[in-house]
Here is the input.
Amino acid sequence: MKKILVIGAVGQIGSELVPLLRTKYGNENVVAAGHSKKPTDDLANAGPFEFVNVLDKESVETVVKDHGIDTIYNLAAILSATGEQKPQLAYNVNNNGYFNILEIGREQELERIMTPSSIAAFGPETPRDNTPNETILKPTTMYGITKVTGELLGNYYFQKYGLDVRGLRYPGIISSETPPGGGTTDYSIEMYYAAVKGEHYTSFLGEGSALPMMYMPDALKAIVDLAEADISKLTHHSDFNVNAMSFAPEELATSIQKECPEFTVDYKPDFRQAIADSWPKSLDDSAARQEWNWKPGYDLKAMTKDMIEKLTPKLTGE
Ligand code: SER
Here is the structure.
């Protein structure tokens, strides 16, 4: 990994992954690529920045050739809730876009492709508690269908072409920097923002909807550690479960109320409830622990403390 391209660099994960990779590998060795959203000055100026469209293969190819890229982190994706409103778009970006990336990897003989999968790869028939790595993958959302396809394609390119494709099934990711867009787990971030701004929050998921979640520093550590893992130790490639914490909306509210006692919440589940109901509550991540020493650092209490500390100056100027 000498020259890295991060596609989706302006998104929730990309905007924090790029600075971390630049610190680790050098500013000039990490090319950040966005689609249409304006990057922050830091993202655009600290190192190379390009615009690409994963559906326009040539636009990615040009950047790969111009910068001598050997590793791609593909974070371009339409998330679950938007995917249910625009299934054709989700299919196109997540499947056809990712296929373009894999083909570039094969044709240009890249060293590595990193790509997230998701808890959305599971479905209502999957065991919901401590969900095994190997289990029933019959998702009922378009997002989930594209994620299962991506996992299978990644494993296929590894077996057939020797392309080193690695991926992990992210739970809901919580962060204080760039808000996500169009996810079912986004309620959790909205709840922190409302609490810090002193506002009431109406949750679009109901009480009891426990889902696996992870704080951004752990999400970044997971993908970077997996990228650096010794390939001879990997039995899995594109489909690692990674677990950190699980909570339902009312448990998150209680955790926030310990820091912000005035905070109030009510619950009005919408179409996203059905998506949440089809996903696991917690994951068995023993494969990731054994094969590349995965271990999360944050639980709910530690995350809430840090989120509130980070969001308070940002949202209130205090
Ligand atoms: N956070 C994602 C979503 O809610 C799950 O991968 O869509």
The mean pLDDT is 97. The chain has two domains: 4-171+216-241, 173-213+246-316. Residues 79-80, 118-120, 143, 170, 172, 183-185 surround serine (CB under 6 Å). Residues 4-171+216-241 form a domain with the Rossmann fold fold (CATH 3.40.50.720).
